[in-house]
Design brief:
The chain is mostly helical. The chain has 1 helix and no strands.
């Protein structure tokens, strides 16, 4: 009886052990797949993060470039306006000196005219 019982238990273990081993292998396979998927996801996340950083740096570089261009343009416009303002000042000064010279000449002629009319004996 003992022999039958031992052989029955041994056969149950062999027959029942197969599905247990298969289940254990499937569990290991699932765990391995989960780890692989996790590592692939972390790689993809890392790639996306580095791509995002690169895009951020490119955007910052373009922004800085645009700021520099606007600053240069502002400086150019400022210098052009200063040149125009200086040219107008010079022109105004020249007009003032010309007007002063004409006024002086007219006063001299008027004075000479007055002197010539008063200096004649009647």
């Amino acid at each position: 009886m003992r022999f039958i019982l031992v052989s029955a238990v041994a056969s149950a273990l062999v027959i029942g052990g197969g599905p247990l081993v298969m289940a254990d292998e499937l569990t290991n396979l699932g765990s391995d797949m989960k780890q692989d998927m996790g590592s692939m996801a972390s790689e993809a996340k890392g790639d996306m993060a580095s791509e995002h950083e690169q895009m951020k740096e490119n955007f910052k570089a373009k922004k800085d470039q645009m700021k520099d261009e606007m600053k240069a343009k502002r400086e150019q416009m400022k210098s052009e306006m200063k040149a125009k303002r200086d040219a107008l000042k010079a022109e105004r000064q020249e007009m003032k000196s010309t007007a002063k010279a004409k006024k002086g000449k007219a006063q001299r002629k008027a004075k000479e005219a007055v002197e010539s009319t008063t200096s004649r004996p009647y």
